[in-house]
């Protein structure tokens, strides 16, 4: 019976080509517009570390006070002073600090040109906190942090470029005239958006290639390759040492807290720290700290580009219009067959039969619209490069789940749209139709 | 034309009437807002930089190793010399940034030393005596820097040069009377004297956060000699840009190979800088444009489809009217008026919807208020679209012969 209905549907679709074509186009365009924008939205707004996002927190301390901070919010990173205080207090299960570094790699082969490798100066806990996968070796140890050892973790991509992909753990490499010993090679790791370094605005940048100990970087006076936000109060310093002790923020802090009690305890610790600083005369305002987990942090920092939200909302509106259009066209199509329905009803077809037949017909339209939508979505994906930065456009791609979702959306939306016209069709009075004929 | 019979006929097609009106309303709301976004983006991406864009290109030079500030400064000066000697080069300067780059040094400017809040934010451009000429800036008051005034500093030094040149936009903000030259202002490191004023120089970033001080820039007579590297800005003679761009990297590496100039974007013409800076603005404008056109097409298709259905359904009535003496023109007018009535209801609802949608976007995305012109434009477009879409089915209706009245089916 179902197959029969589908066959009836297909026959009917062929009977009025113009209306059918209009419907299919309408659904195809509506679905494609929503899917393309949804793909971008999904790519940029997904949870980059779902298994831990509720346990990783950014602790921020207001070192500027109400006169200089923006709308009461503490700055989005820490000063060196505060970062060190948080590290040494050791109040969380795990904690790390990080800032971006850009180091020149000097190839062993003198004929090859040096190139820049971007990455981070951070602490040992970085790798376990963010579940960084390793191809060879591992991260360094807390002891190596304390010893300020020149060790380095490189990415799979850099290892490929320099060592042809073989296990390079234990080998030495030169960066900016300093010798490092490789302790680990990460597997491909590129969380998007790059939640752990939003402060530097590299949310969609290429993956980091090197990681070195924070303590070694500071000892060697390796400058941040990222932002340095000093505020207006003038305590910036005018040399490396005074800058380090000054009030510029440039370090992204992260702590891992396992449960609500730990979060509560950490908040109290932060407030206690701020009160200490006040007592010591560094702050002259009440504690004004923040502790946000990954999702709250992404949200607060507006990590999702507004373009993708605006276009998602417009595309949804677009889909609604296409559906309204489809309802109208289906209504016209179904009601035109009122006499036919009347005959069928008079010959004993139940309302349920009418429902089944017309919904099956609508599903056929949806399927055809979905197929067109799929083609248009693929074309749209190619065109994404024009609309968004290439780094974002690259993230959105047509995968199996998206294909499935496109078809599913097209069919279910069309069947949904068909309910009202079908209901009207089922209401057709057999007697009245027969009489008027 | 009598409207009453049309209304009573429409009452028999409530669902269809409602669907067309709803579609027109939704389309109006979305098209209005889309056109408005397009306009804003296009206006944004045609803002001037104030520099001689067609003949400028930029080299991002990063140093290898850990040379000190003085050594870096010496190397920068050597590089500038190397670039100046290339054929086709008109002038060369170095800076920490350039307009449309995306980020750089921004700072607060004060009028008094003990002031708490900044009088204005400003973009800080580090420069030498060639900066104004190389970029093609127009000096409208005061003077350019002298060669002996140019110092050099590390990123960490206090920002306290004895003299600065400012843009007119900043001068007007700080000294509305128009007598900025010779006045003292306070940078973070201390007082400085304005010695010149240039007409126009855009900020490094065109993002929303920088729009508060978009054209307010301060030019500092120092080379920012950072180990991290800096930019060389080259102005070529007309038509020679490509050749110079090819030669520049080679000449620099030949002089001193201990440097990194990224293959991908180490050397950028200003044409590329501009298209990179406005990539998403242009993209959004295109996306909105495509959505609007397709949306209008879909709506028109819907009107054609439903009206065709009505015409088909009413063939007998039309035949009766024709038999009773209605002209073809009357029938055409009937369907056109019917559509106009539905469209009017649609645009009325659509106007409310468009404003509501705009208000929502204003609160969510910090957009501007929709201007009335866009609403009126959208209404006119949709009414015309409706009339255009209904024309073909209405024409077909008008061709129904009077004899149709006698047919039974």
Beta-strand share of residues of chain A: 5-15%
Kindly report how far apart the N and C termini of chain A lie: 28 Å
Domains of chain B, number: 2
Structure summary, number of beta strands of chain A: 10
Multimer state: heterodimer
Tell me about the largest β-sheet of chain A: 10 strands, mixed
Strand-pairing-aware structural class of chain A: alpha+beta
Mean pLDDT of chain A: 87
Q: Strand content of the residues of chain B, in percent?
A: 15-25%
Gross geometry of chain A: elongated
- Order of secondary-structure elements of chain B: HHEHEEEHEEEHEEEEEHEEHHHHH
Radius of gyration of chain B: 32 Å
Rg of chain A, Cα atoms, Å = 31 Å
Largest interface: A-B, 64 and 67 residues
Organism (chain A): Dyella telluris
Keywords (chain A): Cell membrane, Membrane, Transmembrane, Transmembrane helix
Subcellular location (chain A): Cell membrane
Pfam families (chain A): FtsX, MacB_PCD
Textual characterization of the structure:
Chain A has 2 domains: 1-47 and 305-432, no CATH class; 56-301, no CATH class. Chain A contains 16 helices and 10 strands. Chain A has helices at 2-15, 17-45, 80-89, 125-129, 142-146, 156-163, 214-219, 240-245, 260-279, 294-300, 306-335, 338-346, 351-387, 390-395, 400-426, 430-436, and strands at 56-61, 94-105, 115-122, 134-137, 151-154, 172-175, 178-186, 210-213, 252-256, 289-293. In chain A, strands 1, 2, 3, 4, 5, 6, 7, 8, 9 and 10 form a 10-stranded mixed beta sheet that branches. Chain B is of the alpha+beta class and 409 residues long. Chain B has 2 domains: 3-46 and 278-405, no CATH class; 65-257, no CATH class. Helices cover 49% and strands 17% of the residues of chain B. Chain B contains 11 helices and 14 strands. Chain B has helices spanning 4-11, 14-45, 69-84, 131-135, 168-174, 241-255, 270-277, 279-313, 315-323, 328-365, 372-398, and strands at 56-63, 89-95, 105-109, 120-126, 139-142, 151-153, 163-167, 184-187, 190-198, 217-220, 222-224, 230-236, 259-260, 267-269. In chain B, the strands form 3 sheets. In chain B, strands 3, 4, 5, 7, 8, 9 and 10 form a 7-stranded mixed beta sheet that branches. In chain B, strands 1, 2, 12, 13 and 14 form a 5-stranded antiparallel beta sheet that branches. The radius of gyration of chain B is 32 Å and the shape is elongated. The mean pLDDT of chain B is 89. Classes of the chains: A alpha+beta (437), B alpha+beta (409). At the A-B interface, helix 2, helix 8 and helix 11 of A face helix 2, strand 13, helix 8 and helix 10 of B.
């Amino acid at each position: 019976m179902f197959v029969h209905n589908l066959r009836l549907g297909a026959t009917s679709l062929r009977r009025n080509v113009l209306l059918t074509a209009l419907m299919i186009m309408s659904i195809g365009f509506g679905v494609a517009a929503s899917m393309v924008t949804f793909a971008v939205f999904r790519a940029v707004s997904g949870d980059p570390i779902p298994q831990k996002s509720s346990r990783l927190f950014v602790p921020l301390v207001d070192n500027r006070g109400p006169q200089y901070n923006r709308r009461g919010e503490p700055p989005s990173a820490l000063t060196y002073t505060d970062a060190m205080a948080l590290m040494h207090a050791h109040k969380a299960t795990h904690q790390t600090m990080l800032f971006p570094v850009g180091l020149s790699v000097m190839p062993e082969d003198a004929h090859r040109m040096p190139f820049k490798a971007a990455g981070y100066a951070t602490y040992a806990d970085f790798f376990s906190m963010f579940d960084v996968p390793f191809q060879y070796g591992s991260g360094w140890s807390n002891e190596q942090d304390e010893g300020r050892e020149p060790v380095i973790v490189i990415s799979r991509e850099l290892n490929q470029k320099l060592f042809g992909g073989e296990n390079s753990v234990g080998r030495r490499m030169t960066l900016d005239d300093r010798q490092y010993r490789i302790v680990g090679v990460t597997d491909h790791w590129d969380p998007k958006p790059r939640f752990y370094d939003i402060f530097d605005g590299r949310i969609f940048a290429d993956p980091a290639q090197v990681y070195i100990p924070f303590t070694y970087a500071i000892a060697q006076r390796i400058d941040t390759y990222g932002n340095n936000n000093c505020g207006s109060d003038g305590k910036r310093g005018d040399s490396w040492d005074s800058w380090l002790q000054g009030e510029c923020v440039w370090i992204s802090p992260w702590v891992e807290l396992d449960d609500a009690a730990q979060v509560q305890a950490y908040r109290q610790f932060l407030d206690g720290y701020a009160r200490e600083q006040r007592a010591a005369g560094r702050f002259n305002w009440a504690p004004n700290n923040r502790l946000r987990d990954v999702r709250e942090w992404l949200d607060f920092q507006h990590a999702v580009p507004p373009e993708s939200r605006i276009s998602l909302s417009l595309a949804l509106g677009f889909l609604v219009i296409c559906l309204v259009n489809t309802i109208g066209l289906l209504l016209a199509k179904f009601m035109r067959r009122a006499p036919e329905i009347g005959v069928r009803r008079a010959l004993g077809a139940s309302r349920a039969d009418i429902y089944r037949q017309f919904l099956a017909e609508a599903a056929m339209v949806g399927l055809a619209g979905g197929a067109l939508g799929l083609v248009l979505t693929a074309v749209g994906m190619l065109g994404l490069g024009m609309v968004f930065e290439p780094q974002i456009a690259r993230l959105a791609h047509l995968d199996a789940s998206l294909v499935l979702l496109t078809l599913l959306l097209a069919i279910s939306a069309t069947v949904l749209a068909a309910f009202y016209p079908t209901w009207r069709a089922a209401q057709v009075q057999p007697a009245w139709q027969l009489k008027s004929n | 034309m009598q409207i009453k019979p049309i209304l009573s006929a429409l009452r028999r097609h409530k669902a269809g009437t409602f669907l067309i009106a709803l579609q027109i309303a939704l389309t109006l709301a979305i098209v209005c807002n889309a056109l408005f976004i397009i306009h804003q983006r296009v206006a944004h991406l045609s803002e001037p930089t104030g520099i001689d864009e067609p003949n400028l290109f930029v080299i991002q030079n990063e140093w290898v190793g850990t040379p000190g500030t003085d050594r870096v400064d010496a190397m920068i000066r050597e590089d500038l010399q190397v670039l100046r000697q290339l054929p086709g080069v008109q002038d060369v300067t170095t800076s920490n940034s350039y307009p449309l780059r995306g980020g750089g040094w921004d700072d607060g400017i004060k009028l008094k030393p003990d002031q708490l809040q900044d009088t204005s934010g400003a973009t800080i451009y580090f420069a030498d005596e060639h900066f104004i000429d190389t970029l093609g800036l127009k000096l409208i008051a005061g003077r350019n820097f002298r060669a002996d005034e140019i110092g050099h500093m590390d990123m960490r030094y206090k920002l306290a040069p004895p003299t600065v040149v400012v843009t007119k936009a900043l001068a007007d903000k700080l000294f509305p009377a128009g007598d900025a030259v010779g006045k003292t202002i306070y940078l973070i490191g201390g007082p400085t004297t304005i010695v010149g004023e240039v007409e126009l120089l855009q900020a490094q970033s065109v993002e929303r956060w920088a729009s508060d001080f978009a054209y307010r820039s301060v030019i500092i007579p120092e080379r920012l000699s950072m180990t991290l590297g800096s930019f060389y800005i080259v102005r070529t003679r007309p038509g020679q840009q490509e050749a110079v761009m090819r030669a520049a990297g080679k000449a620099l590496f030949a002089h001193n190979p201990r440097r990194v100039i990224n293959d991908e974007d180490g050397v950028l013409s200003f044409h590329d800088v501009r298209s990179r800076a406005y990539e998403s603005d242009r993209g959004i404008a295109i996306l909105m444009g495509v959505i609007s056109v397709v949306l209008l097409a879909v709506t028109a298709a819907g009107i054609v489809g439903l009206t065709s259905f009505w015409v088909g359904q009413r063939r007998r009535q039309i035949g009766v009217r024709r038999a009773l003496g209605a002209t073809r023109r009357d029938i055409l007018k009937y369907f056109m008026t019917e559509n106009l009535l539905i469209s009017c209801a649609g645009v009325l609802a659509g106007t409310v919807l468009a404003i509501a949608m705009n208000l929502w976007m204003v609160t969510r995305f910090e957009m501007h208020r929709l201007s009335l012109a866009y609403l009126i434009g959208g209404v006119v477009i949709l009414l015309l679209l409706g009339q255009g879409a209904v024309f073909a089915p209405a024409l077909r209706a008008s061709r129904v012969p009077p004899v149709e009245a006698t047919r039974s089916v």
